[in-house]
Input
Amino acid sequence: MDSVRIDKWLWAARFFKTRSLATQAVEAGKVRLGEERIKPARNIRPGDKLRIENESGLFDVVVVELSDKRGPAAVAQGLYAETPESAARRVAAAEQKRWFHEPADSIKGRPTKRDRRLLDRQ
Output
């Protein structure tokens, strides 16, 4: 296998739960190859540098292996190598989140009148 579609690879590498979520993220510009926006049908090869933004954070990774099939998490982690700067940035963000809890994180969607009053008290 020389190349694989970016949306299939993102799904196989477990950055997104479904392939359609991976496709939507690529179309929204949350996945970049180098510094350029790409389309979901774009083929990637080993050695390509990707910047991936998902609900877990921002990842800078280098493609190590290709796969278009989703497997166990241990296998998925072998498909890419995260840069040290990216790992340090994510650890720092997790530490910040641990010390400062955003009150609005506990509310899903638009706050109700009661939620708004609780937020104002804090």
User: Anything to note?
Assistant: The beta strands are 4-5, 31-33, 36-37, 43-44, 49-54, 57-63, 80-82. Residues 2 and 70 are 18 Å apart (CA to CA). The domain at 1-82 is CATH 3.10.290.10 (Structural Genomics Hypothetical 15.5 Kd Protein In mrcA-pckA Intergenic Region; Chain A).
